[in-house]
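Hi R.,

Here are the chain sequences for the assembly we discussed:
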Amino acid sequence: MTLLERTAAELDGLPEVRPRAQAIAVRWAPAVAVGGALSLWTLSVRGIDPRAMTSLGLVSVLPPTAILALALLATSFCFTVWRRPASSALLAGHVVALIFMLYALPALVEPAARFAVTWRHAGVMQAILDGGHIDASRNPYFEWPGFFALAGFAVKAAGASGVLATANWAPLGFELLYLGPLLLILRTLTIDARLVWLAAWVFYLGNWIGQDYFSPQAFAYLLYLIALAILVTWMRPGWPGSRTRPAVQAALVGVVLLLFAAMVTSHQLTPFALLGSATVLVVAKRCTARGLPIAMAVLLLSWLAYMSVGFLGGHTDEIIGGIGHLDTTVGTSVGGRLRGDSGHLIVTRARIGVTFCLWAVAFVAALWLRRKGHREPAPLLLFLAPFALAFAQPYGGEILLRVYLFALPFMAFFIASVMRRAPLGIGIALSLVLMTAFFVTRYGNESMDWFSRGEVRAVDRLDAVAPAGSTLVSWSNSLPWQARHYAQHRYRSIVTGDDWDRISRLAPGSPAQVAAVARYVRRQKGGGWLILTRSQAAESDLTGYAPRGSVGRLDAALGRSRAFRLLYRNRDASVYVPVAVGRSAP
Amino acid sequence: MTARRVSWPALVAGSALAAAAVALIGAPEAIRAPLVLVFLLLGPGMAFVPLLGLGDPVAQLTVALGVSVALDLCVAMAMLYAGAWSPPVTLVVLAAIALAGAAIQHAKRGGAR
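And here is the predicted structure of the full complex:
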């Protein structure tokens, strides 16, 4: 009997004999707690005002009652796992409630789709719908159009006008879809059903990466989990699933290849992660489908060679640069250049700390389990395999986040395995610590990631007036644009432009800076249009692109300057067009 | 209703026909979106996956989810690259694939009886 089997047998024990009333109370208490936590959470977060957020993000505006709801759910879940013979339905109810509380929060409190990249992805999808064809030479996104084609097709077939109205629910949707394959994977790692649910609990508490918005990565990750679930459930020697008929085995290999094909056309990184994991399993003789990695490699290379020529031409910067602030946050941090607002520094440090801490705990737990007699090498191999990506892909600091994501199911399993052996109190305390870490790390940039209706209206106005072929210019990247005319305009930001070195050295809002900005905007192809928003100011202040308040000072100076004409202004945004040289002086 | 008693071929065929019908007649989004999305997420997969006899519902539904979205994507991409981009036609093609799978399941079940 392995350690985990023993654990399950010991902890399940014999059913306790209790008086009837007490038994009924014990039976229903967790269900009542889940319902109570959910209602309390929903009621308390409804009143959150995103404008009140500090640079710590959403955690700074969570009301005490919302925190109480989280604590109630964590306590009830741990009681259910530790203390009583629990039904899977009850444990599942806790985990689903947790997913709702962690991942639907922006959908409940924010007025518009969050995260600038969501808007860009909506724009890429729209460009494919408008054109009805793919021109991979124009934009690297179109070299991996699979997800956008699927989303565009689904949106049209469903009769919806677009994805932005429901985009804030995408994380909840994706995370719920991940639950099926996650349970399949975990069920092959232990026979202790409660450890399975505890590991799922840790998985959701640990998934702070935020790669579950409307994106190819979120979709490719679903395919990755399902493919891994098939490999470990039906193709692992010695596991009961591997004893299915050869015809079924062959069909399942076909399914993995179908999933891989869909992944290859959708995302540039995930296929490498799955290929790596499959290869490691085959080399370690933990996968019966020996030829699978070769077939995968052939599919992957065929796509790269014939369809996405641009990948080999090396212009992936637009996609990778588009990951934006996450890249700057962790990328620069890993490189040792921490900067920005003090709250933002806390968030950044928390992200690095949580990531490395959880990796370390999981690794030590894996070794400990091995010493205790848990000999199956597959989970450790699958935990370690994604780390090879760090050497193989040009993702910069961002790659560590993706490594974390791909290793997460197995990391969660190892952490849950040690947690399960700890006393109940420790279990509750660890859950609460992970919850706090989740809200700080995941929603730490929220003050720049959320968009107000005013910001969206300003972008609407810009889209209405700028003719096709214009260059739209922003201060920094966080704004809700690119959703409507992604392929027709060029989009530039001052902080990533050629003149940034000069502009950043000038006093914020000074006539010299206004003149430099005017020169930059005028020089743009097709005529430049400038938009400044609250979210860009928040991004600039958070990440420390420029001294605090720079965007506000520049905005005020532009309003007074004769070098620019104000086209539109509301509380959160301004749109300017430069006045032609000769007609005015700055 | 237990998993054993669910008639997957009938459910898949019903879902495929309903999705295609509401899309083709242009039903309002509130009716159309749930019917089409449920079909796209599970229909094409559940048309074939029960043939494998994978056992428990979580395993079956998970594999079916993967097969469904991958098939949806492949058909949509094929239409796109063939220069024949048309969401309604793509949906009809997927519904036809699902009906074919449901028919095979039905025939196998009849044969086994």
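Chain B touches chain A through 40 residues (CB under 8 Å). Residues 7-112 of chain B form one domain.

Let me know if anything looks off.

Best,
T.
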